[in-house]
């Protein structure tokens, strides 16, 4: 397994993935935080599946994470793209031929890829968080948001905030991996991911109404926020794990059985 | 023991039979050519042997292990299948290191294979900047990484310039002479003829011949090359000679008659009787290309 992970991490060091993954996640993290603080209370910082952020929410002990948590889906889409691209590029470049020939245990290959992508995603989320945090105090001051409640539990809030955000982003990544393996196309995977987050889950939520909270996007967002009014963190996490296991089962079965014809 | 052995190996893709009831045995050592027109099933056979795809029916072994368990022989096999494949933004060295790590091979081996294919000086450049020929060398370097006993190369000289082709051919010969088994698939007969000790000829999934190259050429014997004075008469001459019982084929304005040199006068007489004048009539020893054409019944670069 270690061999497979090291090999995968070497390929993840590709400049395009580093810039695309870590760079985009940091950019969206900064953008989300700026937007949330600048528009706090105006009601304009909403996307499908997000809520209006009030000044009171920003002044809460975990207010520093409000931007990242509110737009966790957006960061999740970046992870979805990176994970999907990691799977589809192996196919489109033909690299899968070399990988499967060198290590015929396909589930080991997939497991190694997942471990490497988890490490990559944790690092990318950490970079995004570390880049955002120093900026938050200045944004709060300029927006007239009191940060008095932040200080007593600063380290604890940062650690739990990072933990919740990373879990959410990882779940989006797993979804991306599954879609990537199924479709073998980076373009289709990205379209499905963005289409689901921005359109499909919203429409599905309107149809299901009370059942909306059980949908993947809502559950993942609840995880990012450490729980929501509709769903406790533990419930959301369990639901997220169920979704992830289902996606991994589909991905593993497909990857194990499918012919390597690329 | 056979390095590769297939028994009634078949692979279908929908209604298309890519490999059909293939019985093939390749012994250890030397360079073996896998020849056939494009789309003849060479790459499918290679994929089957490497465990990339599963057979529809039949069995096969590599180093005595069934192809359903490729892990048993993966460390002893290096392969280049349907062109080189790399992460384009990574350097040649990093690409090879990534594959070396997967196989548990030390980095020193990466330097050795880079040197073997003449890419050591360019190893820091991203693979995307490489020419097709350099990518092909990188693909061969990747195949050489495990220091394989069996090297399977699918069209290894694609995109190489003449000097590069000679270099790769020399490399293949050296690897074969070292006692490794090198299986080279190609639709370029000149390449096969120059590098291989034995060959297997495949067409549309069927094995047409398997054995030493010399046996195939000697079995084919010679032919007569007849060239009518007017190019418009080529088809008429071919039809005439065919109607007289000869096996003929047409290539580049010549009618090739499958007959010994002693029948050249008969060919000339038949043409004259039909009012056709020959401007050339010469006996020829069969080349691998002639044999191939007769066996497959089509030009060597037939579309897939």
Oligomer: heterodimer
How many discrete domains of chain A? 1
Please report the total strand number of chain B as a whole number: 14
Count of DSSP-assigned helices of chain A: 11
Q: Specify the overall morphology of chain A.
A: globular
Spatial strand arrangement across the major sheet of chain B: 6-7-8-3-9-10
Instruction: Look at the helices and sheets of chain A and give the structural class.
Output: mainly alpha
CATH superfamily of the largest domain in chain B: P-loop containing nucleotide triphosphate hydrolases
Task: Return the CATH class of the largest domain in chain B.
Answer: Alpha Beta
Using DSSP, what is the number of strands of chain A?
Answer: 0
| Portion in strands of chain A | under 5%
Task: Write up what this structure looks like.
The complex is a heterodimer of chains A (262) and B (304). Chain A is an all-alpha fold. Chain A has one domain (2-257). Chain A has eleven helices and no strands. Chain A has helices spanning 2-12, 15-38, 55-59, 66-70, 72-92, 95-102, 106-143, 154-183, 186-208, 216-224, 233-257. In chain A, helix 1 packs across helix 7 (106-143). The longest helix of chain A has 38 residues, at 106-143. The two termini of chain A are 24 Å apart. In chain B, helix 5 (162-177) links the parallel strand 7 (150-154) and strand 8. The longest helix of chain B has 16 residues, at 162-177. Chain B is elongated. By secondary structure, chain B is of the alpha/beta class. Chain B folds into two domains: 2-212, Rossmann fold, CATH 3.40.50.300; 222-285, UreE, C-terminal domain (Alpha-Beta Plaits, 2-Layer Sandwich). Chain B is 34% helix and 29% strand. The model of chain B is unreliable at 299-304 (pLDDT under 50). In chain B, helix 2 packs across helix 3 (107-116). In chain B, the strands form three sheets. A six-stranded mixed sheet of chain B has the order 6-7-8-3-9-10, sandwiched between helices. Chain B has a four-stranded antiparallel sheet with strand order 2-1-4-5, with helices on one face. Chain B has ten helices and 14 strands. Chain A binds chain B through residues 3-4, 6-7, 10-11, 13-16, 89, 93-105, 259-261, and chain B through 47, 50-54, 69-71, 74, 77, 79, 81-90, 94, 97-99, 101-104, 142, 146.
């Amino acid at each position: 397994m270690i061999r497979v992970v090291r090999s995968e991490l070497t390929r993840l060091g590709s400049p395009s993935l580093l810039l695309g993954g870590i760079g985009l996640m940091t950019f969206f993290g900064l953008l989300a935080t700026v937007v949330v603080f600048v528009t706090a209370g105006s009601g304009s910082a909403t996307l499908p599946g997000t809520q209006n952020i009030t000044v009171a929410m920003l002044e809460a002990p975990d207010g520093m994470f409000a931007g990242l948590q509110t737009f966790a889906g957006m960061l999740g889409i970046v992870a979805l793209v990176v994970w999907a691209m990691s799977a589809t590029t192996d196919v489109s470049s033909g690299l899968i031929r070399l990988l499967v020939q060198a290590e015929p245990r396909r589930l080991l290959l997939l497991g190694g890829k997942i471990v490497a992508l988890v490490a990559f995603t944790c690092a990318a989320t950490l970079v995004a968080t570390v880049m955002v945090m120093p900026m938050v105090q200045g944004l709060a001051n300029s927006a007239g948001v009191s940060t008095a409640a932040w200080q007593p539990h600063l380290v604890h809030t940062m650690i739990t905030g990072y933990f919740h955000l990373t879990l959410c982003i990882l779940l989006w990544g797993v979804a991306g991996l599954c879609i990537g393996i199924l479709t073998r196309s980076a373009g289709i995977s990205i379209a499905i991911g963005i289409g689901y987050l921005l359109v499909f889950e919203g429409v599905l939520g309107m149809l299901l109404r009370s059942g909306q909270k059980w949908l993947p996007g809502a559950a993942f967002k609840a995880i990012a926020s450490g729980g929501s009014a509709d769903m406790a963190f533990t419930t959301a996490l369990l639901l997220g794990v169920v979704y992830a296991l289902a996606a991994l089962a589909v991905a593993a079965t497909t990857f194990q059985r499918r012919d390597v014809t690329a | 023991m056979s390095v590769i052995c297939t028994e009634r190996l078949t692979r279908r893709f929908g209604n298309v039979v890519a490999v059909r009831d293939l019985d093939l045995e390749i012994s250890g050592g030397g360079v073996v050519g896998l020849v056939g027109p494009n789309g003849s099933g060479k790459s499918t056979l290679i994929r089957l042997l490497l465990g990339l795809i599963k057979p529809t029916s039949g069995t096969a072994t590599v180093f005595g292990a069934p192809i359903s368990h490729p892990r048993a022989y993966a460390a002893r096999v290096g392969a280049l299948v349907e062109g080189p494949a790399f992460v384009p933004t990574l350097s040649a060295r990093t690409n090879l290191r990534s594959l070396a790590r997967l196989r548990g091979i030390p980095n020193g081996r990466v330097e050795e294979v880079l040197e073997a294919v003449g890419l050591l000086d360019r190893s820091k450049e991203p693979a995307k900047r490489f020419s097709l020929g350099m990518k092909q060398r990188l693909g061969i370097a990747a195949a050489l990484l495990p220091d394989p006993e069996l090297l399977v190369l699918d069209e290894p000289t694609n995109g190489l310039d003449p000097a590069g082709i000679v270099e790769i051919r020399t490399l293949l010969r050296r690897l074969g002479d070292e006692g490794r088994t090198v299986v080279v698939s190609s639709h370029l007969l000149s390449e096969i003829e120059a590098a291989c000790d034995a060959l297997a000829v495949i067409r549309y999934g069927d094995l047409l011949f398997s054995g030493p190259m010399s046996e195939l050429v000697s079995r084919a014997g010679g032919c007569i090359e007849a060239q009518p004075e007017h190019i418009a008469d080529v088809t008429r001459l071919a039809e005439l000679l065919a109607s007289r019982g000869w096996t003929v084929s047409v290539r580049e304005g010549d009618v090739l008659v499958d007959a010994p040199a002693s029948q050249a006068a008969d060919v000339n007489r038949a043409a004259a009787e039909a009012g056709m004048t020959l401007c050339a009539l010469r006996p020829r020893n069969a080349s691998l290309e002639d044999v191939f054409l007769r066996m497959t019944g089509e030009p060597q670069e037939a579309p897939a």
